[in-house]
Amino acid sequence: MKRFSIRVLLAALLSIFANNVFAAPAAIKIGALFSVTGPPSFLGEPERNSAKMVVEEINAKGGIKGRKLELVVYDTGGDATKAVQAANRLIKEDKVVAIIGPSTTGESMAVLPVAEKEGIPLISCAAGSKITDPVKKWVFKTAQNDGLAVSKIYEYLNRKKISRVAILTVSDGFGSSGREQLKANAAKFGIKIVVDDTYGPKDTDMTSQLTKIRGSQAQAVICWGTNPGPAVIAKNVKQLGIKLPLIMSHGVSSKKFIELAGDAADGIILPSGRVIVSDVLPSSDKQKKSLQSFVKDYQNHYKVEGDHFGGHAWDAVMLIKGAIERGGDSPTAIRDQLEKTRGFAGIGGVFSFSPSDHAGLNKDAFVLVEIRNKDWALVK
Question: I need a surface site. Which of 153, 174, 293, 366 has the fewest CB within 10 A?
Answer without folding.
Answer: 293
